[in-house]
Amino acid sequence: MLFFVLKRIAWAILTLLIASWIAFVLVHLSGSTPGGVALGQSATREQVIAYNESVGWYAPWLQQYFAWVGQVLQGNLGVSLIDGRPIGPDIAKRLPVTAALAVLGTLVSAVIGITMGVVAAVRGGAIDRGITAFSGILLSLPAFWVGVLLVYVFAVQLRLLPATGFVPFAVDPQAWARSLVLPVLTIAITSAAGLARQTRASMGEALTQEHMRTLRAVGTPTWRIVYIHALRGASLPILASVAIQFIILFGGSVIIEVLFALPGIGQAMQSAVGSADLPFVQALVLVATLVVVVVNLALEFLNRVLDPKLRAS
Amino acid sequence: MTVDTTSILRIRKPQRRLGGRVLRSPAAMLSLVWLVGLVLASLTSPLWLRYGPLEQDLSAVLQGPSWAHLLGTDELGRDLLSRIVTAAAPTLLIAVITPIVAVLVTVPITLWAARYARAEGFVNRLSEIVLSLPGTVIILAFIAAVGTNMPLVMIAFGLLLFGALYRVFFGQAKSLHQQLYVEAAAVDGVKPMTASMCHVLPNMSTTVIVQFVLLFGAAIGLQAGLAFIGLGPQPPEPTWGGMVQTASKFIFQQPWMMIPTGGVLALTIIAANSLADVLAGGSAMPPSLVSLKRRKTPADAAATAPESGTPSASTGRAQAAASAGDVPADADGALVVQDLVIGVDDGPELVSGVSLRVGRGRVLGLVGESGCGKSVTSYAMLGLLAPGLSVRSGRILWNGTDLVRADEKTLQRVRGHEIAFISQEPTRALDPMFTVGWQLAASVKRLRGVGGREARRIALQLLTDVGIVDPPRVLTSYPHQISGGMAQRVAIALALSGRPKLLIADEPTTALDVTVQAEILGLLRGLIAERDMSIILVTHDLGVVADLCDDVSVMYAGQIVESGAVRDVLVRPEHPYTMALLAADPHAILDFEGTTRLASIPGQVPLPGSWTSGCRFAQRCRFASDECTAAIPLQPRVQGDGGVRCIRRDDVRGRQEEWRRPVAVGGER
Amino acid sequence: MSTVEPVVTSPDAAATPLLEVRNLSIRYGRKGPLAVDDVSFTIGRGETLGLIGESGSGKTTIGRAILGLVPVTSGRIIFEGRDITRLSAADRRTLQGDLRAVFQDPFSSLDPRKPIGDALSAPLRVAGVPRADRTFRVQAALDSVGLAPGSEERYPRQFSGGQRQRVAIARALVTDPRLVVCDEAVSALDLSTQAQVLNLLSDLRAGADLGYLFIAHDMAVVEFLAQRVVVLNRGRVVEQGETREVMRNPQAHYTRVLMAASPVPDPDEQARRRQAWQQLKASASAPVA
Ligand SMILES: Nc1ncnc2c1ncn2[C@@H]1O[C@H](COP(=O)(O)OP(=O)(O)O)[C@@H](O)[C@H]1O
Ligand code: SF4
Ligand SMILES: [Mg+2]
User: Region annotation Disordered: residue ranges (chain B) (predicted)?
Assistant: First the structure.
């Protein structure tokens, strides 16, 4: 077990290194240089070169990369080229926003999606066809379009909720919750369908397993067959999709954050890319990879606990 | 090594070519027309559009649909229809790059990894790493590097999809490589990579095409999303995402703009996804193994049963009309099946008028080749028929109740408490997610109404009773940790947990080695003696019948063709099919001196739905004559009790050895 | 296979066995237990050798090793005097179809997407037989197993289990081989179809120079077809000899248990067997299974 843990952690670190190396290379391949971005249009060529020299931009790549890794290990993610503020604290401030969005979005879509999937698999027939067709459509709707439509209905027409903007939890919990309703609803509508399909498929498969007949033959009631045995049998693939959902939301909530003007890391990524804020881009890639890697590790350990075949070995 | 008779339970749809599937599905045709039409319309748009996509008309900004502007105008008075149509071809054609790149990269790597174990480890790791990269963020970083060059972004997206796609492809490629025909190609001397290309890739093609279409949809979505957040092609070039973004800005002034812009995008992705669904063979799910719905009152079921020409059906209906009160008095402790007819709803009949009787403490064998309806008959006795199958008529009498007409509550009282069931695949009959102890204790608790501690004690006792050597260890084991023979013992213990009076065993030893089979048969024999239980033993092995059964019924094509005491049927068979089976069984030959041939029964068991009204064995019977085309009832046998369904039974009796004579060398159809 | 050819070209050839397996050991993975442990046997020209054992006894592994489908850990496999233990895939082609196979599962041993004629002509193509010849030989092979002319254009799904196994046999015989490894070739078949295939195998070898390695778990099936038999238990040979001798007078305890455990469809004879089995079980120091 210990060996397994160490091996997994080693892989996680390797993944982080590779992701940050990719980000590093991309940043260096881009036409921009730190000096060009930081000093703006008005700066002279010499000023730009001098700035670049000062941040070591012309040193060999590997040397630069490891210097950056060294800084990161000391907890220093660098400073933004645009406003000169340190990146670390900025990201730390943004993380809770994205985390709240991802956690709530995953939870709500999991509840809706799993319920839909179970109902489809168990009831079958017209209900199943209806749910499957419906989820097929939901699956295809672009999130930003759904978001805008929701804004139109709930904010513009009904005036129930704020259209955009964010209020931190510490400032006003109720306003915080209201500012998250539409983003989370948008996520739920567009992500629940995938989970519903996965749940339906896994449940359907579990229900065709030979042991279902044995259970019936010893008089097991239907609710036990469905909710204890079939759902348990289907739990591993469902859990994996929920984890993937979470990962996608954490790294990919750019559109939602931009649409609803939420100050999360997705929005930061968009503006950093738009303004070529190179150190910020690099830092964000690292943080996003870290989240994926941690979630994957957690999933793997959970699998070890939940899957008898893995647990035994 | 096992004869899996349950695999036929799932009727296979005839494989249709992909093209056929698409042509036959309105949804798929509609999707295809939409996608192709959109591209064609877009490419030819300069020829027929009334306005150019960049043509501004500041006197008509933010208009709703009108004759002049069918889909309205945007904030600069540009015609939305023109802009949407113009943007279509670039969007779709550039989006195709992603699936092309993803498939071109992933498929060869997958084939390589699936063929060589050494490559597999490496590629698995690689795919895990790719899978752990935060896709969206990397794409954005990529845009930071190369700018909003969409073709390049689509290539990067395709590469990032390697991880996910490899997961989807690898499992299938691996299992295809393990198919015997790939090995057979190796024995033929075909080169490994040639074999992969010829035998593995074509069989993966459906999956590849389906993923291709799905990724196509995803790529369109990504492009639009990027354009929406301002990282797509730059204005004034029209893009779908950019138009939705504009629409969202002017949502207070002109909400209409949302509809055509987002709608076209949504419809296009829906088209791609539904095309993929149809290509994947539809989303139809195999029906669950047991019925989860509340049972229709079976009396209705019998009343609505379609008319059937067989004589048994009419007697069945006559009896169905009678109330359950007139159960024969001698039925106490016995299970009596009368004229049972089972069919697929809106489909063929599977079992035609089967009658059986198992007395208390007796063992009845139900024997026949696969597909004769043995399993279906045994499922019916506990109301375990799969959804889609139902009893059309007939009765199953148990302790004064007709189980065919019993409601679900009555059946639940019988299942496990009075009648128990064990099935063919012991390791698959137990739930892999729970320990043996948990499963046993759960059913003891429910069936005996005892508490947890007592239930665990009883579970331990049951395992001891079925001859398990180390019960405490087995209790804490998961099903995959025990051998097949052990699992069958556990399944028997589970069946005994409600102290049933009758055990229905469907091929309980077929999947086991002969030595283990002998042990299990010994165990069953002991149970009969100690617990005064009766058993219905379903099997295709005549030797097993000889070992354990008192009586036997031989089934062929949904009918009982011969029944009687074991000694009568196996030693003095009166039906040509029974004779043929015995003569075809190498076990029946005790001394091989001089015997060089087994009986060859030409052809195969006819499928349900293709049965004639005459003798169903006639096409294969070497004694068949013209009389055999008439309907043939089960008539009393000459020696002993029981019945025979053969019109020529007096002529053919004792002519078993004739079956060994060759018809023609390898000449059977 | 429709013609009988005289094959013994030199006295030497008659003396060398068709196949010789010497001290064969195989393990799966690097550290796994030995799946096959020091197994030796020979098959003479035109002889049928039965290889019998329960699941996990290593019989399939031996068959696959002979066909070059699993790597051999130690020992030698000699086919017609030539060491084929570690033949490369390319060198295996030089066997020219003398060594062929019929697999257990008639449903997965044929590619569902190819007409069966393709499967039959593939080994001929590899051996460089000209096209016209190939068509002729494929038809002859199909004919010899009793399949109608024109079958070569049909797809596997159009055949029943028994017919597919005939196709598989035709495919093995199309190169006119000296040895066919039949791995559980009849176990997945129903009784009546099994009998058809067994009769067919027996007819095909009559008068031809064709040997079988017939792998099965069922005593009676081996008894029907094989002249000599090798009994395997947990990767080791426990007994081998003339089938008739071994059946009449089994030496190893394991062989006796195996025979007594195999049920016969005659209630009285079966009662005797059962008793014999119970006695063997009682007398055994170590429990079986
Ligand atoms: N759920 C089902 N739907 C349709 N046909 C079925 C179903 N289950 C079994 N059958 C058909 O019923 C026939 C009898 O099957 P079965 O009882 O399993 O035979 P046996 O047990 O004798 O091998 C077969 O032709 C089989 O294909
Ligand atoms: S009725 Fe005719 S065809 Fe049927 S078994 Fe008897 S002799 Fe054969
Ligand atoms: Mg069956």
Answer: 295-324
